[in-house]
User: What shape does this take?
Amino acid sequence: MIRLTKQADYGILLMTQFARAGMGAVFSASDLASRSGLSLPMVNKTLKLLSRAGLLSSQRGVNGGYQMSRDAGAITLEEVIAAVDGPIALTECHEHGAGNDCGISSHCPTRLNWGIINDALRDSLAGITLLQMIRPFLGAKSLPARERVA
Amino acid sequence: MIRLTKQADYGILLMTQFARAGMGAVFSASDLASRSGLSLPMVNKTLKLLSRAGLLSSQRGVNGGYQMSRDAGAITLEEVIAAVDGPIALTECHEHGAGNDCGISSHCPTRLNWGIINDALRDSLAGITLLQMIRPFLGAKSLPARERVA
DNA sequence: TCCATACAGAACCATTTCGGTTCTATTTTA
DNA sequence: TAAAATAGAACCGAAATGGTTCTGTATGGA
Ligand code: FES
Ligand code: FES
Assistant: This one.
């Protein structure tokens, strides 16, 4: 169903908590678990992924925690989703990198088009920052102009 | 990874076969299996779904088969995907219809925005017809203007 | 010093979904 | 009436997902 995984959704939810608190705010995993209503293990797991991807920086030990490593306006949905779920690829053939043959590529007349559609989706998500996510697109029925698929 | 299921991909592949042959062309499941390189059972299964959704009309019995029930220019990717995989919904909360609570909705400040993003994706796919799919967007690095996310 | 706090990393498991096959009707026509 | 062809559903193994648990390491304070 072209569905985002739950964990990716959690990732965005967590990142928005940081975004709302503003640059420099530090939260521990347990802080975020209670704030978000998610289970602590899941929060831990997800924060680690976000940290590994460089979206959060971490501090161990007493009074440690996580904070945004960039401003909320400089972090996009595409990055968050890729950090948690891996690269965005509607079909297997369009994953950048490894053995990307879906098995039917020799008969598939639409591969090039899929690539373009895939890029359009990725660009669309790459055009939306956390800063924009924390405020509803007031009254909008569509994405703001500069966020349109290019 | 925001991935299309293989079966939805197969559905598009099969529909493009009809589109290339033009309105009125009739194919049996076994015809399409050999043409597409997919297994017969899988082709059967997928064609049934496309037929149930009204994109193909079927004729049983000897010399029967399937044909497009509309012109290729009037069938969109969104319809094909929805026919095979169900409605397009990036997160559970945005499925039209049944119990669409993802469990974290009370803490989720981004629900409205997701709805908009989701609609943008759906509209994007709804703007691409089979007729367009069977010819590469020649030289294009992005979708044609009228297919842009609205 | 030493312990509690908090992240890092990986293994682990149950459940669901997915990809694919098989079986049994029902319709149609030669 | 037999063969061709779709309709529908059940079925199964494999993979992905969601979620937990365990071990290790760094930090800072009592
Ligand atoms: S989907 Fe793989 S080549 Fe068409
Ligand atoms: S994802 Fe369900 S409400 Fe935000």
Summary: The pocket of FE2/S2 (inorganic) cluster (ligand 2) is lined by residues A 9; B 91, 93, 102, 104-105, 108, 110-111 (CB under 6 Å). Strands of chain A lie at 56-59, 65-68. Chain A is about 45% helix and 5% strand.
